[in-house]
Model the fold of this input.
Amino acid sequence: MSYPFPSLVNKFAELAEQQNVLWAQTFGLLKTEVALARFKRSKFAWLVARTFPNAGYEELCVLANFNTWLFLHDDLCDEAQLGQQASSLQEVTDYFLEILHQQIAEPEKGGAFAMALADVWQRLLPMSHPAWRLRFIRTMQEYFRACHWEANNRASHKAPPVADYVIMRPYTGALFVDLELIAISEKTDLPDEVLQHSMVQRLALACNNVVCWTNDIISCAKEAEQGDVHNLVLALVKERGLSFQAAVDEAHRMHNEEVRLFAALENLLPSFDGVTDRELTKYVAVLRTWMTGNYDWSVQDTGRYKVESVTVK
Done:
């Protein structure tokens, strides 16, 4: 895979990686030495350093901690029984939303994940304004709904049709949540009418598709071993009767179409006013670095995937 966008790394990458390991240990998210070793191989902070290259140290750390929380929550859903128990998952995510609304967590009620989320939220509050917080919470609600959709599929042993999967994947991947964090990393404040503009929305969706489908291609061997059906490559195999390699090739074709669409659309963005246009330029630049940064992290930094088991033509 290649992209017509720059590959960048935040200058605080290594410091943020060290802070992230200490943060995860402090909140009890790593229960064993095996978990700690696996965590260190994953290098979650490096993903955020590649995708938010301009963030300051404090902002980079909180964004790395939050993305780590998302990854570990995703693993809990994908690899543990919680991801197959829709009612239990609903109870857990309802409490996570309560934390965001009430801005506090009770240790005896939510456990390590709740306390870790509350810590991140408390640090994001002074970096944000009320309208942004409401938008962030709405986006988190959409992510949790998508997690419930996956849980229901697993519980019923149902593989989603490709069309349904393509619609839901931008939400299960939580990238829309991450795109809200551009306001934190770039200190931008784009008005809703700009963020909701059809061209900006389609750019964000193209970025989301590229990132999520890259992840699906790279992680398809791992997820096939686990028996998960929530992967574009595996959905194509099941629905269309393709060979594994043919499905990888088709996913790659879809990925490339979204890259080309993004490159075309960013040149057609409307002009609003001088200040807004400069803010929008910063926003779109982070969309670009998410596409390159996610791929670079996946194949260069993290030990999370078996990249060598997938051939992309």
